[in-house]
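Task: fold both queries, return tokens.
Query 1:
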Amino acid sequence: MGKPKNAAMNNVIQFRSGEWTGRKLEGLAVAWGLTRHEAARRLMVLAMYRLSLDHYPAIGRLEQAVGGGQSFLRACDQAGAALDACAASRRENLQSPMTEWERAEFLEEWSTRFTDPPIGLPGELKPATAGEGSGSGSPWPACSSRIRPS
């Protein structure tokens, strides 16, 4: 009897990083308080969800709020879904796609609303601020008030 089919989804991935990449990875691992292996895994997960190092602080807050096993992956999944929903909202409203800076700003605001909720139900979003989504200073529509973390 062979291995179960789902065992192929949990393969060990190994590569030699090279000196320069190894140094950068070591620096991130130290800054994040992780092993090099975990830092590399997190970089891979960020890339899978089209996130970058700019998003790491917001993802870190979400990770703490999510808790439990695979919390970093689940935080990235939540953030990716929020960014995708915001992008869809912008398309529906015939707005241009968010720039990388706008994506980082949106994720920062959205994750703060999730991790620092108002008094009320856990995970409840704060009400939208005046002018949010109305084009008066906000780089995105009111999608941040429509997307609820699960």
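Query 1 returned. Query 2:
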Amino acid sequence: MLTDRYGLALSTTSGDARDAYVKATDLALTFYPGALEAYDRAVAADPGFAMAHASKTQVLIRQGDVAAARASLAAAKEVVAGTSERETSHIGLVELVFAGRTDDALNRLARAIKRKPPFPAAFHEYGYLLHSLNRTDEAIDVIKAGMEAAPWMPDLPLLLGWIFHARNDGGSARTAFARALGVAPNHGDALYGIGLVLMDAGEFAPASEFFQRALLSDPSDQQSRLYLGACLLELGQTGAASACLRQVTRGGASFYGKALKVLSSSSRGRFWLRPSGLARFFRGEQS
């Protein structure tokens, strides 16, 4: 039986669906872009994968797309029969959040984190929901309790790092990301997180090293490649920076805009009066 990142059983027999689901969940819980697209890949690989439908619903709720969230939740409920108790409970939790019954959802999660043996995913979900409701101090307390209950799980300090980063507390964020790396030395999201904190502090050389390590962990990580290009640009390595940014633009229109922002905001960047000049640059032509 296939399992998620926590070793919990999933109601799919498709390896492609499982891999896309795990990737999507990583993206959703660490504030990366692209989670919705990854859940779509999971559903396409296995239309009967209830957890993928439910988790996609959570992303749509956060994006405020009520109609799409309703349709996705309905799809999850249509295929929930035969899933595990844990999966059924998760879909019920998503239904509570969609209905605006957040207090009921929080109460359910509060009971879940008291299970013996510990259920680490519940701490993660509880902390994330509290944070999304701007109850950040409570979220931090829940996640820290989860870290004590499941010190082997990197996703909890990783989420804590993102919460601290959102509060502009770079020092605490770096400490949390470092703890995640201590548990999982090649965890791409933790490497990216430390790189981002260092870049925010203007420490471009060490930041670039962490982004490079993140890319070794996941060569498809366009966000790390984007910021690696930004760091290299600030370090005066314009050739390598340009190569990174050109590769990033192949990730789609959204990344094209992000690469343009990096170029235009850097003191060592470039700007164009004509769109044709920018297009030639991203194609690697002389402008």
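Both queries returned. Flag for query 2: The two ends are 55 Å apart (CA to CA).
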